[in-house]
């Protein structure tokens, strides 16, 4: 079986998700699809499974052109997918989840015996030893994922798409998964392995396709003939390191830490986290998805409980109760990675979005609020970010993704915070916004702000940070002084992360 | 986990029913007299069917504020037909059920097609249905029902009122439907995880329409039962069904968020509500306090459930699949 | 196969020559050509016109004018003082009931207990006046305080239990009603001080306008000020639009939510007391029809059920429209018994219209932002 994709394009309201995606996937092959966040990998998968209709391009199976209008049609053609997020019905049995929508009925009644038997066969196939009658909410993430792989296999699939299958499972579980995938390859299944973990890609796959900004930049390249460096270069592109950032004085080595964590443990499972960010410094917190970086930020903001250890602001041990407390008492702000879900009031105007952090202050001074009172205070932050808008009264939902991201950052500029935690600031934005964002963070540090930059974009971390903290499995594995030499840094950092995976710690 | 949660809920309900019964019996011995037991079971019978009408909507994560409205409209439809001598009771019953079905179907179609929330749609249609009932009758009841219907509403075998047949049949049918029938399973799948169901090719609109339609039929059943109990067709019937319709499934362990139902729990909850309201009247506590008890029981049930979830989450490893437990996502969660 | 042909009607049509395999470069280049920005003057005028008609306020005023014209032509007495006076009384009460719900809708919540708060407050206040000899003003104040207290209790429970507002207010709807009935035994109080009943019969400025309108207007002005000029109001809307973003932006969500509940409780109490004055007695069944009424005004006025957007004046006009229909039906000798039906149908119709309008707006928005994206891409 051969799956060929050519020239797929898809755009949503404000963003181009796919511009020109092409690749060829053969049976008996594990094909890596790599690219940074927002490169269009997930959209490509959605197109292949029929949940998104492309604006242009063709899909061919064994040379025949096909169109999918829904997931059923795609599955009928032998394509199955295991999504990044789990799709199980929590209160259904494992067996029924495995055969969801295809359960056996006899005389119109659900045939529990046959259901369980069929499910057990497929569970054995993926080597998962759980009771088919147990409900899905008793499964671990890794088990749930295997159930979904079993579901895919049970649909007599010849092409299996796996979207970031290792993002939420441990090293040991990853090994089990890989063994299974190799078996499947032996039997002739074509597997597309979507990941941004290059170690795993090199370990498992023989062919790679690289995507960037919705385009295929490297198609069906045998991994034997390409170095990791070339792979990364294809992923991040060239225009990225075009402009050098100005020299930043006062890297803050002499000053005391603005924000410091001493052996902090949280209910989410962080263990013994220690870090510090000084005024005028950018500290990169690098790690893969699922390493626990966002959760750490939330714990600092008081959204989840810290069970032991101390948080210090300006050398004083403090207890931050909630984000309001963080903002008012400690002048600390947090830019969420999920700008639509947590960063913006989409149908509200730009000035309402940016001004939200200073309403209290202005109202106290004036006695009342109005857009006219707030406007002068939000104009400057919006302009300094180079946000393209027609007026401050424009609804944020009308802006492009990059400008939305700028709006979600601007509120912290308006509040003039001293400590800024930025979570994946350039996820899914265009190159120019990325550059603007980088310059902004650089400037903030130059003006004495303490910036903690959470990112899984290695290039970004190396470009901006003074120091890099490497996080994996809910703890900080290393602290590296940044040499700003990408090749050297990427090797050092990756080896730190790899040593974690290799040791197979839980 | 699921089975245990529901078993817990049901065991708790049985326990509370027993304790309450003993307490009432000690205070007022005639509580366990056959007349009183029949009264309790009669009121439980109608309450549970009203609860079932909401339960079908909750199973897909919808809700219906039109249960009472459909009940009123069907009552008036039945009353009109029974006024004409030549229509047989069986035919009237069938027409009433079809009327309820159509009313529910309209709710389902509007909700599924407009992507408005079921809440607001059924608020509007429910108002319209009950308004229609009031408008046609000018609020006057149809004073008579055929003797057969009256017997159904008030007769009994020993302790068991004839009326209990209706909830029993409904409970069995619903149990079979949700346990074994394809559509029933699909409804629960949609309620449990809309996205997963849709990805598996299950039609969410179809499930929504089914849930509202079933709800309409069950509301019609409740309406017919009340015609028998009251021996007349009262157009204002249904005006006080709203709280009970939610109280019965929720106290019984059905999740407001959808995907998990308990038929047995609903039956027990209806019995409990009837036991308490009847008992309070017997021991001369104001009958009006009953309404308050209903509200308190709803709160107690959901708070207890919330507490159990919290305890469970604390006792299981952080890396487990917490995210798929939809019920933990309360409105105010960060 | 050419997938590009499928999404017909999209603002930017994208076609790819089959087999070219490079539709993307075509996409970027063809965008401006495919959708050239219309000349500024023409577009903005058409745009302004479209916005005028799609706005709730204008639409409602037109609807009110049209329905009044129809009713005064078809029936007699629609514009008579008597009818207008009782219409203004009804509008005043229903508007405040709607305001009580509007506060909750702003925060993406709802309050099913408006009904029993109204009744509870009326019976409390009535009992104090008639049986305990408390001065009328003090008794009214006690009623307002009680409304605030019960609102606070529900808000506190919602915030601390993280249950949905639906379930909390549903439970309290029956708890409050139960307490009220248990205390009063469901008997109405007719021996209120005459000043209470006289108040509602007073007119202001012209004999067609009830003084109750002043109360409603005052409540409306207070709300409008809150939503236009105070941080609390702005924060309520932010919480309604995106609660998680609100919390992360440093808004104390719990506090704001509780404040909203209190405000909603007070407004329900005001509506109850207005009804008490209208009836010149305290009747325990006050508010039994408020649930539907409370949603009609805000929803007709353009409040989003998903929160974050409300219009106080819209809600007021919405209730004027609705009540003028009811009153018109009475003038046309349609039985008052059909009012419930009319109420439901009007709400359903408004919802569907609103849905339609939203879809149009979304399409417009998609058009604008795809233009923006195209500019940004170059």
Helix/sheet category of chain C: mainly alpha
In whole angstroms, how far apart are the ends of chain C?
29 Å
- First-to-last CA distance of chain A: 38 Å
Helix content of chain A: 25-40%
Beta content of chain A comes to: 25-35%
Question: How does the SSE layout of this entry go?
Answer:
The complex is a heterotrimer of chains A (506), B (334) and C (378).
Chain A: E1 2-11, E2 16-26, E3 30-34, H1 41-48, E4 56-61, E5 64-66, H2 71-76, E6 79-82, H3 94-98, E7 105-106, E8 109-110, H4 112-125, H5 141-154, E9 159-163, H6 171-186, E10 190-194, H7 198-204, E11 207-212, E12 215-222, H8 228-236, E13 257-266, E14 273-278, E15 282-287, H9 293-300, E16 306-313, E17 316-318, H10 323-330, E18 332-335, H11 339-343, H12 350-355, H13 359-366, H14 371-384, H15 401-414, E19 419-423, H16 431-446, E20 450-455, H17 458-464, E21 467-472, E22 475-481, H18 486-503
Parallel strand pairs in A: 3-10, 3-11, 6-9, 9-10, 15-20, 15-21, 18-19, 19-20
Antiparallel strand pairs in A: 1-2, 1-4, 4-5, 7-8, 11-12, 13-14, 13-16, 16-17, 21-22
Chain B: H1 2-27, H2 34-59, H3 67-83, H4 89-114, H5 118-137, H6 147-154, E1 156-157, E2 160-161, H7 165-180, H8 182-192, H9 194-199, H10 204-230, H11 241-251, H12 263-282, H13 289-315
Antiparallel strand pairs in B: 1-2
Chain C: H1 23-34, H2 40-54, H3 56-74, H4 81-106, H5 114-130, H6 136-161, H7 165-184, H8 194-201, H9 212-229, H10 231-241, H11 243-248, H12 253-279, H13 290-300, H14 312-331, H15 339-377
Helix pairs in contact in C: 3-14, 4-9, 4-12, 4-13, 4-14, 5-6, 5-7, 5-12, 6-7, 6-12, 8-12, 9-10, 10-12, 13-14, 13-15, 14-15
Please give a structural write-up.
The complex is a heterotrimer of chains A (506), B (334) and C (378). Chain A has 18 helices and 22 strands. Chain A has helices at residues 41-48, 71-76, 94-98, 112-125, 141-154, 171-186, 198-204, 228-236, 293-300, 323-330, 339-343, 350-355, 359-366, 371-384, 401-414, 431-446, 458-464, 486-503, and strands spanning 2-11, 16-26, 30-34, 56-61, 64-66, 79-82, 105-106, 109-110, 159-163, 190-194, 207-212, 215-222, 257-266, 273-278, 282-287, 306-313, 316-318, 332-335, 419-423, 450-455, 467-472, 475-481. Chain B contains 13 helices and two strands, in the order H-H-H-H-H-H-E-E-H-H-H-H-H-H-H. In chain B, helix 11 (241-251) runs parallel beside helix 13. Chain C has 378 residues and is an all-alpha fold. Chain C is built from 15 helices and no strands. Residues 1-43 and 373-378 of chain C have low confidence and may be disordered. The chains are: A alpha/beta (506), B mainly alpha (334), C mainly alpha (378). Chains in contact: A-B, A-C, B-C.
């Amino acid at each position: 079986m051969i799956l060929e994709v050519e020239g797929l394009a898809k755009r949503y309201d404000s963003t181009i998700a796919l511009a020109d995606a092409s690749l060829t996937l053969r049976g008996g092959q594990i094909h890596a699809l790599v690219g940074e966040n927002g490169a269009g990998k997930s959209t490509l998968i959605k197109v292949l499974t029929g949940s998104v209709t492309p604006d242009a391009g063709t899909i061919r199976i064994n040379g025949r052109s096909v169109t999918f209008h829904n997931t059923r049609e795609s599955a009928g053609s032998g394509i199955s997918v295991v999504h990044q997020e789990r799709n199980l019905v929590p209160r259904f049995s494992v067996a029924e989840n495995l055969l969801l929508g295809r359960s056996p009925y006899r005389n119109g009644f659900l045939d529990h015996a046959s259901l369980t038997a069929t499910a057990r066969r497929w569970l054995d196939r993926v080597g998962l030893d759980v009771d088919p009658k147990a409900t899905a909410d008793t499964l671990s993430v890794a088990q749930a994922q295997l159930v979904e792989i079993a579901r895919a296999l049970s649909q007599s699939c010849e092409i299996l798409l796996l979207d970031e299958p290792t993002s939420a499972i441990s090293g040991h579980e990853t090994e089990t998964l890989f063994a299974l995938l190799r078996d499947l390859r032996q039997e002739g299944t074509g597997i597309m392995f979507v990941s941004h973990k290059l170690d795993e890609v090199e370990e498992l796959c023989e062919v790679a396709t690289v995507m960037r900004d919705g385009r295929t930049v490297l198609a069906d390249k045998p991994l034997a003939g390409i170095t990791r460096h070339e792979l990364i270069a294809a992923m991040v592109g060239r225009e990225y390191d075009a402009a050098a950032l100005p020299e930043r004085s006062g890297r803050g080595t002499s000053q005391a830490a603005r924000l410091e964590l001493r052996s902090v443990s949280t209910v989410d499972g962080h263990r013994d986290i220690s870090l510090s960010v000084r005024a005028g410094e950018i500290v990169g917190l690098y790690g893969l998805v699922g390493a626990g970086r966002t959760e750490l930020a939330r714990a600092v903001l008081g959204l989840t409980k810290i069970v032991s250890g101390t948080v210090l602001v300006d050398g004083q041990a403090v207890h931050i109760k909630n984000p309001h407390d963080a903002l008012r008492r400690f002048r600390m702000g947090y830019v969420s990675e999920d700008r639509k879900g947590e960063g913006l009031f989409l149908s509200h105007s730009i000035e309402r979005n940016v001004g939200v952090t200073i309403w209290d202050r202005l109202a106290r001074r004036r006695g009342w609020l109005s857009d006219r009172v707030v406007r002068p205070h939000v104009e400057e932050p919006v302009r300094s970010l180079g946000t393209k808008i027609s007026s401050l009264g424009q609804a944020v939902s009308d802006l492009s993704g990059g400008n939305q991201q700028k709006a979600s950052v601007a509120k912290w500029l308006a509040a003039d915070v001293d400590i800024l935690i930025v979570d994946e600031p350039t996820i899914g934005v265009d190159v120019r916004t990325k550059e603007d964002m980088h310059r902004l963070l650089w400037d903030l540090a130059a003006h004495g702000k303490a910036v903690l930059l959470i990112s899984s974009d290695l290039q970004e971390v190396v470009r901006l940070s003074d120091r890099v903290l490497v996080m994996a499995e809910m703890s900080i594995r290393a602290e590296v002084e940044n040499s700003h030499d990408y090749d050297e840094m990427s090797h050092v950092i990756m080896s730190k992360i790899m040593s974690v995976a290799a040791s197979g710690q839980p | 986990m699921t089975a245990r949660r529901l078993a817990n809920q049901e065991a708790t309900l049985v326990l509370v029913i027993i304790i309450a019964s003993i307490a009432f019996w000690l205070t007022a011995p005639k509580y366990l007299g056959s007349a009183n037991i029949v009264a309790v079971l009669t009121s439980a019978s109608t309450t549970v069917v009203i609860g079932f009408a909401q339960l079908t909507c909750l199973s897909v994560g919808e809700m219906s504020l039109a249960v009472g409205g459909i009940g009123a409209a069907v009552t008036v439809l039945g009353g009109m037909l029974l006024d004409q001598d030549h229509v047989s009771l069986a035919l009237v019953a069938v027409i009433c059920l079809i009327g309820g079905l159509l009313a529910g179907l309209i709710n389902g179609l509007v909700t599924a097609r407009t992507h408005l929330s079921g809440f607001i749609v059924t608020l509007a249609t429910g108002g319209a249905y009950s308004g229609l009932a009031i408008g046609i009758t000018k609020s006057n009841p149809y004073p008579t029902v055929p003797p057969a219907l009256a017997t159904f509403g008030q007769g009994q075998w020993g302790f068991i009122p004839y009326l209990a047949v209706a909830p029993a049949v409904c409970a069995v049918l619903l149990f079979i439907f949700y346990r074994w029938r394809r559509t029933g399973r699909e409804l629960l799948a949609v309620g449990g995880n809309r996205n997963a169901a849709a990805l598996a090719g299950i039609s969410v609109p179809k499930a929504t329409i089914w849930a509202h339609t079933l709800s309409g039929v069950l509301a019609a059943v409740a309406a017919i039962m009340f015609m028998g109990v009251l021996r007349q067709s009262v157009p204002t019937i249904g005006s006080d069904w709203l709280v009970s319709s939610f109280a019965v499934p929720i106290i019984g362990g059905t999740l407001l968020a959808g995907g998990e139902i308990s038929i047995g729990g609903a039956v027990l909850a209806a019995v409990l509500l009837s036991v308490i309201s009847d008992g309070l009247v017997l021991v001369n506590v104001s009958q009006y306090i009953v309404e308050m008890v209903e509200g308190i029981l709803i709160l107690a049930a959901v708070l207890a459930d919330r507490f159990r979830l919290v305890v469970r989450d604390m006792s299981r490893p952080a890396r487990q699949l917490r995210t798929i437990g939809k019920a933990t996502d309360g409105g105010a969660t960060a | 196969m050419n997938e590009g042909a499928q999404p017909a009607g999209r603002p930017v049509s994208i076609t790819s020559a089959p087999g070219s395999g490079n539709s993307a470069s075509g996409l970027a280049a063809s965008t401006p050509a495919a959708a050239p920005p219309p000349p500024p003057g023409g577009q903005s005028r058409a745009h302004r016109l479209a916005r005028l008609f799609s706005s709730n306020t204008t639409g409602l005023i037109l609807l009110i004018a049209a329905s009044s014209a129809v009713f005064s032509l078809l029936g007699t007495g629609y514009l008579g003082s008597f009818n207008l006076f009782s219409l203004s009384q009804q509008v005043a009460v229903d508007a405040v009931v709607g305001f009580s719900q509007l506060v909750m809708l702003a925060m993406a919540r709802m309050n099913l207990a408006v009904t029993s708060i109204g009744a509870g407050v009326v019976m409390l206040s009535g009992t104090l006046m008639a049986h305990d000899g408390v001065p009328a003003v003090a008794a009214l104040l006690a009623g307002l305080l009680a409304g605030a207290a019960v609102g606070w209790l529900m808000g506190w429970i919602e915030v601390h239990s993280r249950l949905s507002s639906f379930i909390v207010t549903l439970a309290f709807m029956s708890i409050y009603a139960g307490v009220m009935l248990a205390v009063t035994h469901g008997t109405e109080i007719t021996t209120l001080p005459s000043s209470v009943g006289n108040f509602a019969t007073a007119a202001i400025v012209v004999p067609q306008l009830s003084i109750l309108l002043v109360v409603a207007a005052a409540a409306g002005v207070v709300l409008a000020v809150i939503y236009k000029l105070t941080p609390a109001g702005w924060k309520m809307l932010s919480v309604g639009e995106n609660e998680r973003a609100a919390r992360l932006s440093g808004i104390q969500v719990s506090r704001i939510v509780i404040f909203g509940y209190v405000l909603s409780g007070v407004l329900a109490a005001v509506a109850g007391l207005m009804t008490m004055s209208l009836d010149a007695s305290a009747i325990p069944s006050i508010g039994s029809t408020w649930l539907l009424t409370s949603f009609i005004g805000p929803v007709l006025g353009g409040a989003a059920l998903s929160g974050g957007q409300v219009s106080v004046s819209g809600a007021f006009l919405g209730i004027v429209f609705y009540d003028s229909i009811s009153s018109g039906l009475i003038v046309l000798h349609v039985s008052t018994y059909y009012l419930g039906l009319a109420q439901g149908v009007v709400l359903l119709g408004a919802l569907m219209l609103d849905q339609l309008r939203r879809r149009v707006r979304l399409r417009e928005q998609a058009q604008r932002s795809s233009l923006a994206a195209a500019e940004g891409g170059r």
